[in-house]
Amino acid sequence: MSAPVRRRVPGLRRLLLILLALVVVGALAAAAYFSPVLSARDVSVTGATNAPADQVAKVVEPLKGRPLLQITPGQRDAYAAQVIAVSPWIDRATVTVSYPSTLVVEVTEREVVAYAQRPAGTVLVDAKGVPFIKVGEPPILTPKLTVDDPKSDDPATTASIAVLKSLPPDLHGQVVEIGADSPANVRFVLRDKRVVYWGDASRADAKTAALRMVLTRPGKEFTVINPDMPTTR
């Protein structure tokens, strides 16, 4: 009788190869997780113009030397919150990792749209209506915000800022003062002391077109509350 023929088991070989691959991948992942080669050694700060970049970088110093894979999203968020506390100029911040060895801190600073006079002095107001920092002098060409209580949840503040941001650059650059006693009654003053009564923040494009037309006429006060019937006085 002839000897029995052994049958190959391709499925077993495939399984062994898969297990070997998993072992290799696991070993590489473990090496990367603990490897000092992929640890945080450098800090890159972006977006910090008015905020002190060196102080921002110091916030994440405790993460230096730690393998990047061990820095969890929760830890990055916690350090980002500490970055925001560094300066009133900082509106938002994120902390991310960039391989092989860099911590990246991205700062978004507040956009200054106006300044306001408060009992304590002059404060800058951001695009959300937040008075965020006291200054000696406001930046050049920054309009004054005249509302009773400038703050982010004040309707007169938010309406005034909405109108200001809706103006095209050539008109925006002429505004020296803007304010309202209600969201429906925004008015602003131009550099040549002409006064514009704008009304609420609606129909900005139509009001802009009407204002351009009436500004060609003599007068000191211009009303575009109803852009279909602008008036001059």
Strand count, sense and closure of the main sheet? 6 strands, mixed
Radius of gyration: 30 Å
CATH architecture of the largest domain: 3-Layer(aba) Sandwich
> What is the helix/strand order?
HEHHEEEEEEHHEEEHEE
> Share of helix among residues?
25-40%
Amino-to-carboxy terminus distance: 121 Å
**Count of individual helical segments:** 6
Could you list the spans in which at least 5 consecutive residues all have pLDDT below 50? 23-34
For the biggest β-sheet, the strand order reads 7-8-9-10-11-12
The total beta strand count reads 12
What is the structural class?
Answer: alpha/beta
What's the structural domain tally?
Answer: 2
Q: What is the average of the pLDDT values?
A: 90
The quaternary structure here is single chain
GO cellular component, one term: plasma membrane
Protein name: Cell division protein FtsQ
Main location: membrane
Domain POTRA: 38-110
Question: Which features would summarize this protein structure in a list?
Answer:
12 strands; 3-stranded mixed sheet; Rossmann fold; Ubiquitin-like (UB roll); single chain; 233 residues
Detail the topology: elements first, then pairings.
Layout: H1 10-34, E1 42-46, H2 53-59, H3 73-84, E2 90-98, E3 102-109, E4 112-118, E5 121-126, E6 131-135, E7 144-146, H4 155-166, H5 169-172, E8 175-180, E9 186-190, E10 195-199, H6 204-214, E11 221-223, E12 231-232
Parallel strand pairs: 1-3, 7-8, 10-11
Antiparallel strand pairs: 2-3, 4-5, 5-6, 8-9, 9-10, 11-12
